[in-house]
Amino acid sequence: MKTEEIREYLESKRDPRNGDFLSKLLPGIDRKRILGVCMPEMRKLAKRIASEGDLSFLRIKPKTIEEETLQGLVISLEKDYDRCIERLEKWLPYCDNWASCDSCRPKVFEKHHEELKGKISEWIHSPAVYTVRFGIEMMMCHFLKEDYDPSFPEEVSKINRSEYYIQMMTAWYFAEAIVSHYEDVLPYLKDRKLPEEIIRMTIQKACDSFRIPPERKAALKSLRRKAV
């Protein structure tokens, strides 16, 4: 599909009510940039674009949140690792909101963990907020299971950034790490190796999880009381 066709399609799926809802979740984003297209429509369109092979749409600077998110979704479907990275490097500087950032989860990364570790280290040291967030998210998605290493939470803990959306992703990472690596991660909270705000957010997210047993939630809550 050509860019104008894609824009016309997105416009035809505009939903003002959903746009108003999304606007509340994306403070700082101009409401005029939000069409309110639902995610199932976006994913369906991304698959169509990827299957047709005309990816000229990826070369434009996105005007709306939907275009930005759609580009990330198309990139997520790329099956070649090097091409995926090349497209990500061009897209990430445009990414300016958590919703677009979090919707981009390339499937090809599952088979390229060795190469991915190096890219994540680059991303989490970027000056760009959502590039850092994306890097932490990829660490969370790909390195909390069979390829986990205790050095990974240590690396994430050293990201010294005050931006809310980086701190929230850091908290999400540690909350997920608590599920499967409780003994490794607990000292980051107990010994105050993280900023107090991130500790508070981590404990809250962990206590909201159904995968953490009650006794561990109680232990985490006791740490939250100490943080106040």
Q: What would you note in describing this structure?
A:
- This protein has two domains: 1-109, no CATH class; 112-228, Alpha Horseshoe (Serine Threonine Protein Phosphatase 5, Tetratricopeptide repeat).
- Helices cover 64% and strands 0% of the residues.
- It has 13 helices and no strands.
- The chain is globular.
What does the main sheet amount to? none
* Low-confidence blocks of residues: none
Regarding quaternary structure, how should these chains be classified? Answer: single chain
Number of strands: 0
Structure class: mainly alpha
CATH second-level architecture of the largest domain: Alpha Horseshoe
Instruction: Report strand %.
Output: under 5%
Overall mean pLDDT = 95
Give the CATH topology of the largest domain.
Answer: Serine Threonine Protein Phosphatase 5, Tetratricopeptide repeat
The arrangement of helices and strands along the chain is: HHHHHHHHHHHHH
Overall outline: globular
Radius of gyration: 19 Å
Name of the CATH first level of the largest domain: Mainly Alpha
Q: Estimate nothing, just give the exact number of structural domains.
A: 2
Individual helix count: 13
Helix content: 55-70%
* End-to-end C-alpha gap: 54 Å
Break the fold down into its secondary structure elements and pairings.
Elements: H1 3-12, H2 16-25, H3 39-52, H4 65-76, H5 81-91, H6 98-103, H7 113-123, H8 129-142, H9 151-157, H10 164-180, H11 182-190, H12 196-207, H13 214-227
